[in-house]
Amino acid sequence: MVDVVNSDEIISRFYFNKKNFRSDNSVRHNEFMPPKNGRMSVYRVSGLVDKEIWEIGKIYVEPERGSPIVGRGDLDAAKIYDCGLAINPTEVPHPRHANIEGWELNTEKDRLKAMKLAAAARSKKV
User: Fold this and answer.
1) Which DSSP symbol is given to 35?
2) Is the CB of residue 41 less than 8 Å from the CB of residue 99?
3) Is the pTM of this model over 0.70?
4) Domain span at residue 50?
5) Using alpha carbons only, how large is the chain's radius of gyration in Å?
6) Domain count, the chain
7) Tens digit of pLDDT for each residue in 81-109?
8) 1 lies in some domain
9) Is residue 4 included in any domain, yes or no?
10) How far apart, in whole angstroms, are the C-alpha atoms of residue 61 and residue 68?
11) Residue 3 within a domain
12) 3-class DSSP state for residue 87?
């Protein structure tokens, strides 16, 4: 994969909590709140079909988290960049892995960013 994530790439975030889905299938912002380490795990999925994306989650994400995936959100990298965040490819544990970084780790400011990302995400349940 290319070292730079282009703004037109599709980024997927896997979800683990059924309670974070609304009745209209949209996702609550909690799924996009940054972890304490400030590195939110995502995958670059442009060019993949749904089955391939779910397989990445099943093989590489579920074992790491120790719980089943309940859904995912796909969004344009541009939406992440618009929030002042960076997408840094890591290629570990998978060549398409990246981290969203640049969070302020300030609950209120990050909550606003998480709300924007959740609103932009095209959510899919397993």
Assistant:
1) P
2) yes
3) yes
4) 10-125
5) 13
6) 1
7) 999 999 999 989 999 999 999 999 988 99
8) no
9) no
10) 9
11) no
12) strand
